[in-house]
Design brief:
With 342 residues, this protein is α/β, with parallel strands linked by helices. The chain has helices at 18-28, 59-70, 90-96, 102-106, 137-141, 162-170, 177-193, 199-209, 212-216, 220-231, 269-279, 288-295, 326-329; strands at residues 9-14, 40-44, 76-81, 109-112, 118-124, 130-136, 144-149, 152-153, 159-160, 238-248, 256-266, 307-310. It has one domain (9-340): Rossmann fold. The strands form 3 sheets. It has an 8-stranded mixed sheet with strand order 4-3-2-7-10-11-1-12, with helices on both faces.
Length: 342
């Protein structure tokens, strides 16, 4: 944040009802949410699992978002998600988590962005050479992108919140069941061994399976760079973190529940995710992709330079148990990182 600029506003609400928390958080920053002239809105929930609710965005949080939007705009609203290789498919998530009724109720579309028209871009491979991946055109072209998700620990980048939800969900995956089974076995081995897939292995599996999400995983250091690069292309203009329940330990799928009873909302995704990280007991500047986004002016990472509306931050802190690979994940720094931050 430059001298003279207003502090980014971040709503922090605590209560005993999920829908109400999200609704109040959105209304607290209503004047920041500019929808004039917006024709298409993409809401990106999180279906890292399509069978375990704790790992996914609860439909009640999404309903609060839709009610807020429909009172303010007649724009086309799309709920788009592209589940990962170990999840079982986006459409199954829409069914299992109660999203199918939302289409008619709110006059919206539900789409699997893994089936969307692709737009190509470049990230880095494990040798920091260009690697082509596909993004969903719906995510790239949307006038207004909204990320709504729970806060969870992560097996590669410390935590996952609004930014990672948006950018990884925008990456196209076109896999097949046979390869998915092999990937699932590899995932279990990786989790049990506390050793991440190498970048070379991730690239190979990505090509084999048609899963460009896998290609983003090029080791802890490069993955943080890749998330930053994708943040420049498909940043959320509005971030909502439904922390009614979070996940600690072996996130983003197999961790344990944490009852936080909060919701966070901001039009600064770095600020929203940094506040979430701090409430989870993590230092935001130790999360590589958030640090890079802040360093290059995409948002605010310093809690003291935010205007937190609602609850006192200190009253909402609940230190999460980190992922077992947490210490290794913290070694993301690269001496010459600046040359790759375009």
């Amino acid at each position: 944040m430059k001298m003279g600029e207003a502090k980014p506003r971040v709503a922090l609400v605590r209560g005993d009802e999920r829908y109400s928390n999200v609704w109040k958080a959105l209304n607290s920053i209503e004047e920041d949410i500019g929808l004039d002239g917006v024709q298409t809105i993409l809401i990106k929930p999180n279906f890292t699992s399509v069978t375990r609710q704790l790992a996914a965005t609860h439909v009640d949080a999404t309903k609060a978002m839709l009610d807020f939007l429909r009172q303010r705009t007649s724009a086309q609203i799309i709920i788009g998600e592209g589940s990962g290789a170990f999840s079982g498919g986006t459409k199954l998530g829409f069914k299992n988590f109660g999203y199918l009724t939302l289409g008619e109720q709110y006059d919206i579309k539900l789409i699997d962005v893994n089936s969307d028209e692709p737009v190509t871009t470049e990230i880095f491979d494990y040798e920091l050479k260009p690697l082509t991946i596909r993004l969903a055109k719906t995510a790239v072209a949307a006038d207004y992108r909204i990320s709504i998700c729970p806060p969870k620990t992560h097996d590669c980048v410390v935590i996952t919140a609004s930014l990672k939800n948006m950018v990884m969900g925008s990456v196209v995956r076109k896999g097949n069941r046979a390869v998915d089974k092999l990937l699932a076995i590899g995932q279990r081995l990786r989790q049990s061994s506390s050793v991440p897939f190498s970048g070379k292995m991730a690239t190979w599996l990505g090509w084999l399976s048609g899963d460009d999400k896998m290609k983003v995983h090029q080791g802890y250091a490069v993955m943080n760079l890749n998330l930053y690069k994708l943040a420049r292309l498909v940043p959320p203009q509005l971030s909502v973190i439904d922390g009614f329940q979070g996940m600690e330990g072996e996130g983003p799928v197999d961790g344990e529940p944490v009852d936080l009873g909060i919701a966070i909302a901001s039009t600064d995704f770095v600020a929203a995710d940094s506040l979430a990280a701090a409430l989870m007991g993590f230092e935001p500047k130790e999360i590589g992709y958030l640090f890079y986004c802040w360093q290059k002016g995409l948002g605010e990472i310093d809690i003291s330079k935010m205007s937190i509306i609602g609850e006192r931050m200190e009253s909402c802190i609940r230190s999460f148990k980190p992922h077992p690979t947490h210490e290794a994940q913290l070694r993301w720094q690269m001496i010459d990182a600046e040359r790759y931050l375009e």
